[in-house]
Design a protein that fits this description.
This protein is an alpha+beta fold and 286 residues long. It has helices at 69-81, 103-118, 125-135, 139-144, 179-185, 203-211, 218-224, 227-237, 260-273; strands spanning 4-21, 27-47, 50-55, 86-92, 148-151, 156-159, 167-172, 243-246, 253-257, 278-283.
């Protein structure tokens, strides 16, 4: 069989409310999750054993990992389906590591989708979701890579209204940030769920709706990585920015724009002022 490939799109928490806490310390969330065209890419070809090579801009951040989440996903699927063969996997790491845009989770989800095809497994989406849930809280939503409401600790997924095609700029100060540390730094009251049924008619309409919501992890993340405040300031000051917000636990923030050309212009404006940051124009996936 020829080599196959899958994209692993960057995940955005357009809003993220922490609405409670379980007795085991995990937090209940309410979040609107969307995906962008910016993505890692995973390639697989038949091989007797499982192996993983990592290349790309952020490959160095995974150097030395012997149990990468992509391999965990591959091994979990192989065990579930009693697969006796392997695969030669190559991950092109275009997205920053530990950056709040679901890079590792998206990579694991891509591995499940890709190896189901490579190994020609008759395993349905529900069973694949069950494997995804064992790998991490964000892996189930990344498996479908579709706009969704996410609840519980990430395992409760519900359909969300269709979002307009809007421009996005992703900015990361090239500082990794561990999610657990951000939750530990958070204090204060819990928020209320904030889901909406209305379909936003435009980028500006979506920005207006999101402005009445927030990201409850933005403030604690900025205490750990103060550069997040500089990133948000730069996004807000960029031409055409309708909304600037941290995604997930950071340290990647995003700006929302009317369209892709507006996002490209803003990315150039930010990149010229902060050439050491990771700045990528993209758009929401349909």
């Amino acid at each position: 069989m020829a080599a196959l490939s899958e994209t692993a799109p960057a995940k955005l928490n357009l809003y993220l409310h922490v609405v409670g806490r379980r007795s085991d310390g995990y937090h209940h969330l309410d979040s609107l999750v969307a995906f962008t065209q910016a993505a890692d890419r995973l390639r697989a070809e038949p091989a007797p054993e499982l192996s993983l090579a990592v290349d790309g801009l952020f490959a160095e951040g995974l150097k030395g990992e012997t149990n990468n989440i992509v391999l965990k996903a591959a091994r979990a699927l192989a065990a579930h389906a009693a697969v006796a063969t392997g695969a030669r996997l190559t991950l092109i790491k275009n997205l920053p590591v530990a950056s709040g845009i679901g890079g590792g989770s998206a990579d694991a989800a891509a591995a499940l989708r890709l190896l189901r095809r490579l190994w020609r497994l008759e395993i349905d989406d529900a069973a694949l979701q069950g494997i995804a849930a064992m790998l991490g809280a964000d892996v189930p939503v990344c498996l479908a890579s579709a706009t969704s409401y996410m609840g519980g600790i990430g395992e409760e997924l519900a359909p969300a209204p269709r979002l307009p095609a809007v421009g996005i700029v992703l900015v990361n100060p090239r500082v990794p940030l561990i999610t657990a540390r951000v939750f530990q730094a958070r204090n204060g009251l819990f928020s209320q769920p904030a889901r909406f049924d209305e379909t936003p008619a435009s980028a500006r309409h979506l920005a207006t709706m999101l402005a009445t919501r927030g990201n409850d992890l933005q403030a604690p993340a900025a205490t750990l990585v103060p550069a997040i405040n500089s990133v948000l300031d730069a996004l807000r000051a960029s031409p055409g920015c309708l909304l600037a917000r941290l995604s997930g636990s950071g340290a990647t923030a995003f700006g929302l724009y009317e369209n892709e050309p507006a996002a490209a212009m803003a990315a150039s404006w930010i990149g010229a002022r902060e050439p050491h940051w990771w700045v990528v124009p993209t758009r929401l996936r349909g």
